[in-house]
């Protein structure tokens, strides 16, 4: 039984990849990809099973997904339900996750690299001897139901399911994949079916080694990994399953030529064209999709989007193949409409088809293919390491799709230009082979719209209007539409060994003047030809008042809008660009291949200083921004809970939206300023200084750049300190009345973010986060979203527990407080060994290497932007954690977390849903009886001492009375960083 029948090592790998790869086929038919990375500090494994919700029995929609949840909860060898997650978290400092798609279920985990064997052994048991424990089954159904309830008000889920619902009658694509209590329990039970038994049957039928793909990444040798794979995974039974093929497309004559009008939850205005499309998996080397999407989705002069924007009809367009299942795909063109575009949506459709008509009348162009192919090849050649769990999870899935040699590069291949194939696929984009979906709050015209079964989405279906049919039947090319120009940002120079002899470990200051401080770090670790440049342009004007805040946002949005055609070309050449607003100013970031980065930077800064406000674009950008503000109202309650905790704690944060006029504002935003910049990558000192000089020249072109007062250079935004013994609850009603969920975030403040407090907050989290999930989510089933974590804001640290639940928020808060009360016991009962293990596990987590250049850039940028310049923070945190004792942690708990402590400060935000409260009122009493044993307290008892706040005005007033924590300050004399 044991052993390997086939070994394959001829795998194409990126130039800069120093890992070793080997592929095996075990005797039971299981394909395994082994990745040996001697340097890694994190290990991972992933299993992708070629079965998903499209295989659900009609009697139990959601069964494959439910099985995915259950598999984690106990096996014959490791029967305890939280054994796996506890091992990963406590011993391995890691985590696991899984997802269920139409034809795949993907399981993966990540741990510290010295714990792979133990984790792998626990993981392998899921596929040989899961218990499907009866008591877990019932409870976990609630988690799945809560997951569905969480999705109920999310447009992505609603629209995706509606598209599936409106497939051909009887088509498998119509299935509902998530499941809820009705589909998985109530309805099956009424037919005499048992969920657990159906689950076991599903598992026994489909979980077969021949349709599974396993990927293991560890620091061990390939031979060692192979031995583990053989000994742990050979026991999976081979049932010789033949995966299904779905040759019948879900869009047939009855579905095509139809317009679906949909009412979204959010204020979104979107038009989507869907075409039936062949499954292109087996022609991945030719990649015709990339060519076609590149042209239709282009945003430069002559493109569909460029013309639609010019006409004031649209803000954004994307074009992509959307995978259906083995045998069928969709081709989609999606446009975000302006108000005018919504009114004239037929014109938008017409422009899209005019462009397609032009493509039909032109030969496929090899230089366009070539540009895409260059970028694809580079992306693979210089592919950096990424998070190991997403890497393994992705590879396990890729193993189903690509030849063995191409398992790493399959998604990047583009080396076979087939003009005939491309043309034949473009010919499939026909008006009579298209379905249109129009999503907007006002889209529905009917008095009695239909209501979709699973999500309650309101919609209406009608044939294409005759006016549209007529104009589409007499298509001619539009002279405003053309093939894009040659992209000037495609890089041609690549990696060269840096010439500078002195290489620093951390960033150094290479220029420091009253207007500019430039940090520089020449990369020698990652060896990729990339650089990232971040400029923090601090301006006292940015958030001087709510009005100025809105002006600053509008300015950045207008610049981004004006740059769209250039930034799109840059993006095609893997140069990214971002302009973000903060309370202190704006942050401009540009990064990507170093070769053309300077050229692009010059383009951007030029646009920033010469913005011309075109009235139509202004109207449009304002429309978008105000939509952004109103759309927050429709977010799930957990987002609201987090937001309002931040709002209570952070100074100067303002939520009001005031319409304004932008004329003459931005020159004051850009001068006087203080620029704090960071250049990281292959740019050497001289190149970095040149770049900054160019920025300063451009920004200060009319009058030279002037410095802001010193206080405005260093003043990072501060955090409110809750008074000692404060026990506050802030209640808000969720604006979206349809949402069934409530949310609670409980925040405990520890005070100043000094080394000691930070280390203790991190260790507290390490010790209680797994129990938090186990108790609040798995055992008490409060809701799908349940987590805790440390909270660090400028100068101040704390801890929070966050739950989104259909249960009453007062009850939920009671359960959170009860969990926190019991947390003392969790700390107190740890053995010496367990406590030490938590410390070492946490240290290995803190000291995790940065896998790629950008992760390292982000780490340093955080320290630069918050003004601490504390580049060895990780090392210090790890060092402090190792000095902590159990007694220290208990004392810390007693001072800050214990409910009767005189130095405890607690703030909670409860988001009440009006719908949710009605249904929750009924269950609260029985829930209390069920869950709270006699020694535990209900929510009402626990919150006796609380001050309950409900009025925004008085909350804001109270908040403004609180002291502010320390602002960011350098950890060392600034001159010690000088290198010039
Ligand atoms: Zn799930």
TrEMBL record:
Give the top-rank taxon of the lineage listed in the UniProt record for this protein: Eukaryota
Q: Which family does it belong to?
A: Belongs to the peptidase M16 family.
Q: Where is the Peptidase M16 C-terminal domain?
A: 195-363
UniProt GO BP: peptide catabolic process; proteolysis involved in protein catabolic process
Q: Under what name is this protein listed?
A: Insulin-degrading enzyme
The family database entries (PROSITE patterns) matched by this protein are listed as: INSULINASE (PS00143)
In terms of Pfam families, this protein maps to: Peptidase_M16, Peptidase_M16_C, Peptidase_M16_M, PqqF-like_C_4
Residue intervals of the Peptidase M16 N-terminal domain: 32-168
- Taking every annotated instance into account, which residue ranges of this chain make up the domain Peptidase M16 middle/third? 380-652
Recorded GO CC terms? cytosol; mitochondrion
Respond yes or no to whether keyword Cytoplasm is given for this record.
Answer: no
Q: Where is the Coenzyme PQQ synthesis protein F-like C-terminal lobe domain?
A: 763-861
Which organism is this entry from? Rhizoclosmatium globosum
Identify the keywords attached in UniProt to this record, alphabetized: Hydrolase, Metal-binding, Metalloprotease, Protease, Zinc
Q: Which Gene3D superfamilies match?
A: Metalloenzyme, LuxS/M16 peptidase-like
